[in-house]
TrEMBL record:
The lineage of its organism: Bacteria, Bacillati, Cyanobacteriota, Cyanophyceae, Nostocales. Keywords: Lyase, Metal-binding. InterPro entries: CbiX-like, Sirohydro_Cobaltochel/CbiX. It holds the Pfam family CbiX. CDD domains: CbiX_SirB_N (cd03416). The keyword Coiled coil does not apply. This is Sirohydrochlorin chelatase.
Length: 250
């Protein structure tokens, strides 16, 4: 069955996300054997249409191109409420609207791919830190944090969250109290945006608060061939990855 692909992000008022999403979609499209297959982008929030309408419109368009399967790929890093509840509900509504015209498959979320750890390791290789903090957004679905904790352990780091405890500042305080003076902060976010800008400002505040400490802030994951490869894996070999919300590590 010929498949089309829809990359779904949270949505943002920051134009950098849409630019990055289009770049990433183009990288994924280059991996598709047929030039007739579409790779599109969709947004869960902050969009003029609800996600199920976006899926429905994209699905109808791909049917005219000869595709009879649509793979929806959530580009989310944590198995929070959006991944476990909101997006599946939107997919169900889209399926009901399109009936039997096209098969819609919801693929595993991006954060379930163990290869993300390797991407972060490459960023950390350029730092000289004695201690590391993986800073994720966080979720009110607290059981979703186990994937971040596992990622942090594998990278010899501690986890912190932007929206829920433990905060970046509290984790820095613990590390400073333990004697660390070179600390790397790794934003576990997909693209640059308002939150990563706020993290950079927070780093400046921490420098003033702890003048004896050297802070090194890495970039978010960003658009790369490696990230496109992970998305392609999830699109075409979903059985290899956890789809229940926990991240696997090999």
């Amino acid at each position: 069955m010929a498949s089309a692909y829809l990359l779904v992000a949270h949505g943002s008022q920051d134009p950098r996300q849409e630019v990055a999403m289009k770049q990433l979609a183009e990288m994924v499209r280059k991996k598709v054997p047929s030039n007739l297959v579409s790779v599109g982008t969709g947004y869960l929030e902050l969009c003029s249409e609800p996600l199920h309408e976006q899926i429905k419109k994209f699905g109808k368009n791909t049917i005219t191109q000869g595709c009879n399967r649509l793979k929806v790929l959530p580009l989310f890093l944590l198995p929070g409420v959006h991944v476990m509840e909101d997006i599946p509900a939107e997919v169900v509504m889209a399926r009901q609207a399109l009936s039997q015209d096209i098969v819609i498959d919801l693929q595993p979320y991006l954060g379930s791919h163990p290869g993300l750890g390797s991407l972060l390791e490459k960023q950390l290789a350029a730092t000289t830190a004695e201690a590391r903090i993986i800073l994720a957004h966080g979720s009110r679905r607290l059981c979703s944090h186990s994937s971040v904790e596992a990622l942090a352990r594998n990278l010899n780091a501690v986890a912190a969250y932007w929206s829920v405890p433990p905060s970046l500042e509290s984790q820095v305080e613990k590390l400073v109290s333990a004697g660390y003076r070179k600390i790397a902060i790794i934003p576990y976010f997909l693209f640059a945006g308002g939150i990563t800008d706020a993290i950079a400002l927070k780093q400046q505040e921490l420098k003033l608060q702890f003048p004896e400490v050297s802070f090194q802030l890495t970039e978010p994951l960003g658009v790369s061939t490696e990230l496109a490869n992970l998305i392609w894996d999830l699109a075409n070999e979903p059985g290899r990855y956890e789809s229940t919300g926990e991240q696997a590590f090999g």
